[in-house]
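Subject: Sanity check before I submit

Could someone independently write out the structure tokens for this chain? I want to compare against mine line by line before I put it in a report. The sequence has 70 residues.
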Amino acid sequence: MSDKRINNSIFIMFLLSGAYCAAHHISMQEFLALDDQYAILNYIAECPDIFDSMTEEEMVKEIDAYVKGV
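---
Independent answer below. Compare away.
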């Protein structure tokens, strides 16, 4: 994986974790507990390209759909 792709993945993880917490009124600790259960950050790392053109709201909806599908 290229450095650019790694950096992009990390940036999207950062943005999305904050947006998800804000949208669902949860703490970062609660988000990390969800991540332990559903591997959300791993999902983002494996396919960061799908998040590139999404708004934060769309990203949150994508993660909600992912969690419901797991």
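---
OP: Matches mine. For the report I'm noting this point. The CA atoms of residues 33 and 39 lie 10 Å apart.
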